[in-house]
Amino acid sequence: MDIAFMTLSRLAFGYWEGQPLYAMAELGVFDALAEGPARAATLADRLAASTDGMVRLLDAGVALRLLTRDPETDGRYRNTEMATKLLTSGSPDTLIHWVRVMGRWSRPWSRLADAVRSGTTVEDQGLRLGDDPAYMRDFILGMHEYARRGAAELPSAIPLEGLRRGVDVGGGAGTYAIALANAAPELKLTVLDLTPVLDITRAMVDAHGLTGRIDTGVIDYRLDRFGEDLDLVLMSNVLHQESDTVCLSMLGRARDALRPGGRVVVQGHFVQPDRTGPLFATLHNLSALALWSGGHSRTLEEMAALAGRSGFTEVTTGPVGKSGLSMVTAVRA
Ligand SMILES: C[S@@+](CC[C@H](N)C(=O)[O-])C[C@H]1O[C@@H](n2cnc3c(N)ncnc32)[C@H](O)[C@@H]1O
Fold it and tell me: How far, in Å, is the centroid of ligand 1 from the Cα of 197?
């Protein structure tokens, strides 16, 4: 067996396996099958697709173990247990918005060489920030579906005692604000984000019974103030979207918004000092290039230095529990 050939062909074919998943998520196959097993022709009719294309897609779905086709049900397809749990929109464990975002992102990813040539994004980031409401909804809910699984690790990783007022800058659906509010009963939080995002945030906060504890504020985080006299400013998974100039401006405004002794927490994926790993962080860095104008991943040391340059003291770095994320924390003198 030629291991080098096998390894390379696995890499080169890598994107094929995700595509049927993205197509089934985009077409609504999993939700349609949640209503009951169906034949390919019926699904094609319901989902405005060709029967031939649908047969091929569903057969690949069976091969990928997302669907089954039961000969005893006359060739009808059904969701596997995994698809029912993770890919139907009615499931509390759903990842369907996140999978749809990954499908959308496979388009700019397919233009990676263009992004590398030009050194900048190949997608209009306004689309996911409100210009295309369906895309924005997939983006915000998708980030939540993915992040909420490890979100409780954050409050376990930072000192919560004495926290009364905090903001979550670019807080999206409120994933981390919800985790913090659940862990620190005295803490009131404001999720700061763009106008079209905050309807989703309010609905999410309400669904978690935290409406009195978490409110929202419209902000352009590149320009606006974050508040005053705060105990905590959280910036989670946002600074990789921005250049060093914007990061310094945001960290400076975080410092200004904190009371003396208040803490900024920058959470995200960071590359190791030689920048060649971990693998996911190096890919995240490429994603930042393709998707976010000016965005790039930093090392923890680089982020700590930006915090130091912004006037913070007691700068620390470390993992966020077992979430796979890391953080830089720093205190306003
Ligand atoms: C990758 S998501 C991170 C969401 C959340 N903080 C988390 O860790 O899961 C980036 C967030 O930044 C927000 N955002 C992007 N540009 C922004 C801007 N100029 N002003 C305010 N929020 C912005 C997006 O709407 C989105 O909620």
Answer: 9
Establish whether 144 is a catalytic residue: no
Enumerate the CATH 1.10.10.10 domain ranges in the chain, comma separated: 15-88
Q: Strands, DSSP E only, in 156-277?
A: 165-169, 188-193, 214-218, 230-236, 258-268
CATH of domain 15-88: 1.10.10.10
CA distances from 228 to 42, 132, 155, 260, 292 (A): 58, 33, 22, 11, 29
pLDDT grade, residue 27 (50/70/90)?
Answer: very high
Residue with CA at minimum distance from ligand 1 atom 6? 171
CB-based contacts of 279: which residues, under 8 Å, 6+ apart? none
Mutate to test the pocket of ligand 1, among 98, 125, 129 (most ligand atoms within 8 A of CB): 129
State yes or no: pLDDT of 269 exceeds 80. Answer: yes
Q: How far is the CA of 53 from the centre of ligand 1 (A)?
A: 37
**pLDDT value of position 74:** 77
Tens digits of per-residue pLDDT, 68-93? 998 776 799 999 999 999 999 999 99
For the domain 153-332, what is the CATH superfamily, name and number? Vaccinia Virus protein VP39 (3.40.50.150)
Which of the following is catalytic: 97, 144, 208, 240? 240
- Residue nearest atom 13 in ligand 1 by C-alpha distance: 170
Query: Ligand 1, from 194, 236, 239, 242: best to mutate by most atoms within 8 Å of Cβ?
Result: 194
Mean pLDDT value across the chain: 97
> Once rounded to an integer, what is the mean pLDDT over residues 242-270?
98
Strands (E), 52-129: 67-70, 76-79
